[in-house]
Amino acid sequence: MLHNPAWAASVLILGDSLSAAYGMQESKGWVQLLRDEMPSVEIINGSVSGETTAGGLRRLPSLLDSATPDVLVIELGGNDGLRGFSPKQLKSNLTKMIELGQSNGATVLLTEIMVPPNYGPRYSQMFNQVFHDLADDYDVALIPFFMTEIAPQADLMQRDGIHPNEAAQPKITQWMKPWIIEATDNLD
């Protein structure tokens, strides 16, 4: 690939509190750490704490217009699950986001989301299956849920037991970085 030094790939992260540096300075969050490690890539953080897939879908058209990203990373669904929203609605919203991203020329990456086990095996399985089905249906990369490695380690979690702490952010950065590199390297 011939690199044009004047051209930098742009990546839009559309997420919730897990990507919005909840409970810490934004400069300590994984998205900023990724920016620091990948200075040749423009990384736009369109994440909002508490965001659902419905909220992300409402905001996505204007984000795509203003950012015109080459890569769209969708890290949403956790708040849908915590609120017990139907997997059918989750799938509908994520489908529309993937289609919007792709129709705007972006390579879409979908981050797998899982709900806590206390939601019951049936709901948890149906919820998680949505991400796998969409990755297959739309031929998008499915990034395994980074919280599966972080949540079991109390020293990497905030007191609420839901959000990763500052110590977890470099680990999330290293989890996400290869996926972002692969997506940006394959743009030509």
What report would you give on this structure?
- It comes from Shewanella submarina.
- This is Arylesterase.
- InterPro entries: Ester_Hydrolysis_Enzymes (IPR051532), SGNH_hydro (IPR013830), SGNH_hydro_sf (IPR036514).
- By secondary structure, the chain is α/β, with parallel strands linked by helices.
- 45% of the residues lie in helices and 12% in strands.
- The chain has helices spanning 30-37, 53-67, 78-82, 87-103, 121-138, 147-150, 169-185, and strands at residues 10-15, 42-45, 71-75, 107-111, 141-143.
- The protein has a 5-stranded parallel β-sheet with strand order 2-1-3-4-5, with helices on both faces.
Question: Percent of residues in beta strands?
Answer: 5-15%
Measured on Cα atoms, how large is the radius of gyration? 16 Å
Order of helices and strands: EHEHEHHEHEHH
- Helical/strand content category: alpha/beta
User: What is the strand tally?
Assistant: 5
- Calculate the mean pLDDT score and round it: 94
Summarize the amount of helix as a percent range.
40-55%
Number of H/I helices = 7
Strand order of the largest sheet: 2-1-3-4-5
Major beta-sheet overview: 5 strands, parallel
Ranges where pLDDT stays below 50 over 5 or more residues in a row are 1-5
Tertiary shape: globular
Separation of termini?
Answer: 7 Å
InterPro entries: Ester_Hydrolysis_Enzymes, SGNH_hydro, SGNH_hydro_sf
Domain SGNH hydrolase-type esterase: 13-168
Protein name: Arylesterase
